[in-house]
Every structure is written in structure tokens, then in C-alpha cells.
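Quick start: read one record
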Amino acid sequence: GGEAPDARADIARKYTLPVFTCSAVEYQKLQRLRLDDGTAQVFQDVEDTGLPALSRFIHSNILRLVHAHVLRQLKGVDALLTTVKSVITQGPSETPDADLGCRIKEAIDGCLAHSKEFLAKLISNMQQSCAQEYDKAVQPKVTEGVADASGYALWTCQQWSHNAAPTPDRKRGMHWATYRAVCRRDGVWQHHSLGLINWNEELTNPAYAKFAVAWERLFMTILPRHLESFKDQVLQELQSFAAQVRAQLLQVTPSLPQLDHVERGVRSVVSNKVTNGMQAVKKILQDQQREISRCLAPTLQSQLIPTYNTALAESGTGSARRRTAIVETKVERHGTHMLQASAQPLGRQWGELLHRVWQVEVTGVMEGVLK
């Protein structure tokens, strides 16, 4: 009985991490999951990592910037409301025309209709241009990548077998029990010494490697360039709109108090809305970029699950050989078709993202600007 507290203390020490790491890579080194990348960089105290201090610094600066931004917007809105109220209250005293407000609204609505039509066409053209960029730069690489993956598929499967010949990276093929365990987990398993095994990714990696550069360039260069061009054209159109409104208002009533001040306030608010809206759209693109491109492996996995289950059901003498034969035969006969099917969601999800960006997000920003 006297040894129990010591035993509990030993267990607690054994399962308590006494050091801190700054990244997943360092943690993998510490856990001996990554053996060929040097020793792990560890810290005895979480403050020694510098991460808490960095987090506090970032949070304080973000809060300060948000406060300043909100305060600036509120002051701008307050100034705009003050000047608009001044125009409304002083306008009737400058002219006896009781219908001045209606005439002003009619003049503004006429200019607004023209701008709405222009922006709708611009959004449609930009969406079509982005779709053409994908068809020209990415889709051919996807097709080539699927062809490459199809060519490597059977060879890749054969390397998993316990009968596979040794390679420079591996002394032998996968043990039959490990092979069976991977089948049980639908092609994905975290092995205690081999690390993460993901057959589905291994089969689709040649395809991903082929289109990855073009995909990255589409999201990091081409689409931001289109959004920047769109923003510039929108601001130019809104400047033209403001000039047209000013001309129309001066025709309605030659002397509107503080018209210049109102115009400057409106332009500032509109410019901020457009700029912030485009930044939000860019953030959506960045968030979706990697998620969409990684759809190949899960889609292929869903097609291979019945094969994994059939292979897993094998038992008895010779079951290891029959199990590998089931998987390899499926990939040999249907691998090309399955890989082609696994790439189809890429184009479909890209189309859905394109529609969301231009017809929902960007259109919503423009509607907010023109209200």
C-alpha cells in the first residue's frame, strides 16, 4: 500500500509533457515521429517560447486598430448625416419649390440606375474572365495530373504489398497485419513507427503535384489581380456617378449649401466600403483555396471503401496475398475512372466558389455601396 502514491506519481510524470514546443514539426521530433530532421527545440516554460507575449502584443494592437477604425467610421457617418441634414433643412429656404426633394431624388435615381447596370455587367464579365483563367491555366494541368496518377496507380499499390521489392526508402513492403489495419481504416492509419499512412493521398498525389503550381498562381496572383482591377473600375464608375449627380443637382437648384462637403463625405464612405469589401472577398478565396484542392483524396477514398471492406473480409491461409490482389486488381481495372471521378469535384467546387464570390459576396458589397 505504501508504494501506491509513488506509482501514481511515476504514471503522472510519464504522461505529463514537461516541455513546450512552438510547432507541430518540433512536437513530431519530440515524439520521435520525425527522425530525420534533427533534434526538437523545446522550452521548459511556455513563456520562454515567446508565443504568449506575441499573442498579447497582437491582440492589443488589433484591438487598438479596430477601435481607431470604428471611431473613424463613426465620425465619418456623423459628419455625413450632419451635412445631409443641413442640405435638407436649408434647401427649402433657398427655393420656394415645394417639390425640390422629389426632383433631387429623381435626378439621383436616374444616375443610380445607370451605375447599377454598369456594375452588373462588370461583375458578370469579371466572373466569366475568372472562369476562363481556370479553364486555360488549371484544367489542362488537372487532366495531365489525372493521367499521371493513373499511370502510377498500380505501381503505387504494389509497393504496399508485403511482397514488394526493397527500395532505397524502404527495406521491404508493408507487413500483412499493417496492410490489413489500413484496409480496416479505409486507407488511412497512423502507424506507431511508419507514421501516417494514407493510401488515398498516395494515389492522388501525382495529380495534385501536377496542378498545384497553377492552382496556387490562380488564387494568389490571378484572382487578386481581377479583384483589384474590379475595385479600380468600381471607384472610377462611382466618381463618374458623383460627377453626374452633382451636375443634375446643380440643374435642379443652382445653390445647394455644403454640396462639396457632402460629396467628399460620400466618396470617403463609399471608397472605404469598396476597399473593405474586396479585402473580405480575398479572405474568402484564401480560406477556400487549400480546402477545395484537397478534395481528390476524400473523393477517391469514398470510391475505394467497398474494396477496402472486401479485402478486409479475407481470412485464413493466403489471405494476405488475396487481400493485396483485391486492392491491386480494383486499381488496375478501374483506377483511371476513379481518379477522373475524384477530380470532378475540383471543377464543381471551383464553379460554386466563383458564383459565391461574384454573385453573392461582391454583389452584396455593391448593393451596400449603392444603398
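The chain has a mean pLDDT of 82.
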